Amino acid sequence: MTVAQFSQETSGRGEFVRQANRFTGRVSAASTSRPGEGPDDQGRWPVEPGRYRLIWSRACPWAHRAVIVRRLLGLDDVISLGTVDPIRDERGWRFTLDSDGRDPVLGAEFLAEVYRATDSEYAGRVTVPALVDTLTGRVVTNDYPQLTLDFSTEWTAFQAEGAPDLYPEPLRPEMDELMSEIFTDVNNGVYKCGFATSQEAYETAYRGLFARLDALSDRLATRRYLMGDALTEADVRLFTTLVRFDAVYHNHFKCNRNKLTEMPVLWEYARRLFQTPGFGETVDFDHIKRHYYGTHDAINPSGIVPAGPDLRGWMLPLADR
Question: Is 137 exposed, middle or buried (0-12, 13-18, 19+ CB in 10 A)?
């Protein structure tokens, strides 16, 4: 068995088992708390524009989807944004992109400081995205699946006019099932391939990944988006994995049956999303490559960052349909 990148998240069979999200508070329109107060007796924080700060890494797919949803819904001026450096060391995500090495709102040098201020005994991996209450400097949530759904359903009073309904109520049962499959086999599936420490665990994840990509390709062969003619949260969740596929997952995580550019339906679909406002302008391939190749020492001990792939294909003309 090879050395694990994250030993605390690796099973005895060499499988990558992602840690649970530690902070699961929710900002809710149903909160009975007044502006400036903490969560109500049901743990619901009040919806307040300007109060919360979304911390993300441009490299991280889980954080990336929160930024895309925030952009699509027109919440950029409602929820502020803090960006960490793509390179992290044993102390975790760093605010070295800011002029004095500290987040200008939170005053922290490391996101870990905010985690410890919220839970002094927290010993897990510090993750993004994290939604932070700027009044107390505490993490409200790092529960990335619920965070973006709440942007759609709880922040409606502050969304831009004409903002898309990314989580339409009639479609939710089907969407929830589809997004669960995408998470298991694709979003997390690439990590299960890349962080596996046994051949069996790797091959199981590899088969699941490409079986699901084939099924999604079949689904998209007859529709513009995953749920039909309209963009939804399901598309956002799939996009953030697809946009990283050839740059890092194909090589770095050994997801090498095909490149995205060799899967015609998914490649056309991913390019369509990339060229949609809110998507492509939030992608930073430099941060993506430097993070994955520069911080996973067990997988890439040399730290060399590949020069490719050629990114010009993302702006190729789209087929009419």
Answer: middle
CA 211 to chain centre: 22
pTM: 0.97
- Residue 262 burial (10 A CB sphere; 0-12, 13-18, 19+): exposed
Q: How many CA atoms lie within 13 A of 129 on its CB side?
A: 30
CA angle 95, 96, 97 (to 5 degrees): 95
CATH entry 3.40.30.10 includes domain 22-158: yes
CA distances from 219 to 86, 182, 228 (A): 34, 13, 10
Measured in whole angstroms, how far is the alpha carbon of residue 133 from the centre of its chain?
20
The question of whether 293 is a catalytic residue gets the answer: no
Structure tokens at 130: 């994290």
Active-site pick, 52, 115, 167, 191: 191
The domain spans of the chain are 22-158, 169-315
CATH 3.40.190.10 is held by the domain 169-315:
no
Is the Cβ–Cβ distance between 69 and 152 less than 8 Å? yes
Nearest Cα to Cα of residue 253 among 220, 291, 282: 291
**Does residue 191 have an active-site annotation?**
yes
How would you write the pLDDT of the chain (321 residues) with one tens digit per residue?
Answer: 577 677 777 888 889 888 899 999 999 999 999 999 999 999 999 999 999 999 999 999 999 999 999 999 999 999 999 999 999 988 999 999 999 999 999 999 999 999 999 999 999 999 999 999 999 999 999 999 999 999 999 999 999 999 999 999 999 999 999 999 999 999 999 999 999 999 999 999 999 999 999 999 999 999 999 999 999 999 999 999 999 999 999 999 999 999 999 999 999 999 999 999 999 999 999 999 999 999 999 999 999 999 999 999 999 999 876
- Pick the catalytic residue from 52, 60, 249, 292: 60
